Fold this protein.
Amino acid sequence: MRGAILHAPGDVRMEEREDPAIVNPTDAVISVAATCVCGSDLWYYRGVNAMSSPMPMGHEYCGVVEDIGAEVTKIKRGQFVVGSFLASDGTCPHCRAGHQSACQQRQSIGRLGAQAQALRVPLADGTLVAIPEHPTDDLLPNLLAASDVLGTGWFAAVAAGVRAGTVALVVGDGAVGLLGVLAARQLGAERIIAMSRHQSRQRLAREFGATDVVAERGDEGVARVLELTNGIGIDAVLECVGTRESMDQAVRCACPGGRVSMVGVPHGVNIDGAQLFRSQVFVGGGAAPVRRFLPDLLDLIWRRQIEPGRVFDLALPLDDVAEGYRAMDERRAIKAFLRP
Ligand SMILES: [Zn+2]
């Protein structure tokens, strides 16, 4: 099969890779119907995260089950499935508590490389969710979004405590931030302020439910958010970037007793304990337990209640994966959709 390999920063190539096969009796092998490039792939592509050898890329996927191991009982050959970026067994204490991304047996899909024609999915019964029938093509981007960015944006809203009547702030206008807006809307937020400097992203944020857009950043951004809330600050802040600046902004915008969720892999984030103490703000999150939300999110998509796939503004054949990385790196695209 063909799949994407990152050789060095800026150098991602489609190559012939060994066909995936069942290794453990709990595995499934799927043919990938759609995959995509993630903002977190760019950390390696840009050389921010170190890499030691050529690595397969990609952790977002949906597709058709081609083969299952002897111990797989819930997932069947021929089903159309979506899974999250971390494989989880669904049975350990953390999984049962809804923290599947901290599963005691968790395995990274990224290391297996979902930007490929086929993929081995470990712990198939716990990881994969089947949809009722094979989807029409127009549903593919929506289903694929559920594999990571929608579930992560959803978790950002849940971890920030969004509920009916909440005033929410979304820091970050990447795919996760934009879908954090969608999630906050679905969970009943009364007012949703999106921070974005880019017109096309501002427009999509408004379409997903943002009531206000703040283009300023840093001190000016914080001042503008406080002004919009009569100096009170925000109940629920969704921090969807993961940099020191974005987290600082998020904490300073929250009101006393407010919650800041963190769902972007932190790079250089250093939260000052004394500042946190003074602010009386709660901060928490982590790698999103996307699997917790998948059944409900797939149901919303299947019933065409939400269209998270609108974050894909570039569609390419998988063979053009390098252009997908370039376009996202240069911020010409929010998110690149790839079809094998
Ligand atoms: Zn588990």
About this structure: The longest strand covers residues 28-36. The chain has a mean pLDDT of 96. The chain has two domains: 2-148+289-339, 152-285.
